[in-house]
Amino acid sequence: MKNRSLFYLLGASFVTSACTTGENINYERPNIIFILSDDMGIGDLSIYGGQILPTPHIDKMAQEGIFFTQYYSASPVSSPSRAGLLTGKHPANWNITSYLQTRAGNKDAEMVDYLTVKAPTLPRALKEGGYKTAHFGKWHLGGGRDVYDAPSIKEYGYDTYSSTYESPDPDPLLTATDWIWSKEDSVKRWNRTAYFVDKTLEFLKENKGKPCFINLWPDDVHTPWIGNKEEMDLAPKGTNSKENLKTVLKEYDYQIGRLLSSLKDEGLDKNTIVIFTSDNGAAPSFQHIRNNGLRGQKASLFEGGIRMPFIVWGPKANVPVGKIDTTTVISALDMFHSLCAITDTHVPKQFDSDGEDMSKAMLGAPQDREKSIFWEYKRNDSQAFPKAMGADASPNVAIRNGDWKLLVNQNGSDVMLFNLKEDQFERNNVKDKYPEITEDLQNQAIGWRNSLPNLK
Questions:
Q1: pTM greater than 0.90 (yes/no)
Q2: CATH code, domain with 42
């Protein structure tokens, strides 16, 4: 098959006799653990130059693998970001453009109540290709609040799962009440990441000798930041201070280190790739400290809302050690094709992905991007930006093509053009200096936005 030569070209191979269906599945295919942090800014990690506090375990992960400086989420908010990651399609294709909430709120935002099970998903493709699949952590693709008919997570291609409040069947140990967290939860807020790491390690142990794909999607470092019992006792007085964040981030960093150490202790590091990133930008950003000075934050299409940390860690024969890729532009939409290539899994027939195969870059060989990346946020005024965002509030459509990024409202107003190679902080709008580039990208961006489906 067309992906089989990938590892040989890079000097090693997980695949020695390749078969992706039937009884002769080759169990040398790598385990994949995809860690999706929640509301983590690129400046939360010291390996990226962050100043919140040292994150030695995640730093070590990057130093033992490869990390990227130009990775983008599919959206600046949770639900569409996750939908794009799982399906390889712009989330608006599924009528998910903001965070899923109550039925009335979803309707006002012109959204469905949950991701359709008809959508192609990465875990389903991997499962059909012989992988054991699991989801541990936040879901936020339907269920919770007053949405009681959301499909089971298993219907999207997972063999098993454990999830939090905003899911169709939340873990009772995490949800003593009908809300995101409670003092009565059996697994306390500050122990959730540890709980999901334990679930991950148990799943790998139970399926030893079989290739596994695991979504490890903690709800750290999303607010409220409750890092211990003392901070829990502050609620509801306030748990959104920088000191609260430090407590949570320190524990989160430790748990990622524990995961990697456990993989090494069990010898699983020789056949496991771990990917670390975030669903969208930080909030609050503390005057852009959590975004390393990038303009924007969560819910903004400026870089601070969509440019995320991205680390790939794995066997030394396949993933380079200590490499920094500052040139490859990579998107969450690329994960479907890329991970199918890495795992030697068939991409579903007639699957029209909005991403592309960036597996070579993920394994150390920088790639030029062929497709533009598009984003949409704030489809109507029900998704108004918080007043506190000020200049971080962006136009509602964006495109990145090469070094150029253009933002514009669907009606053609508020056009902004930036050369990110020269101006990653998006301070100098050069639309008047480059009218032809502006016109071309504006037409592409608005044309793309107008092609998206409306809620029926």
A1: yes
A2: 3.40.720.10
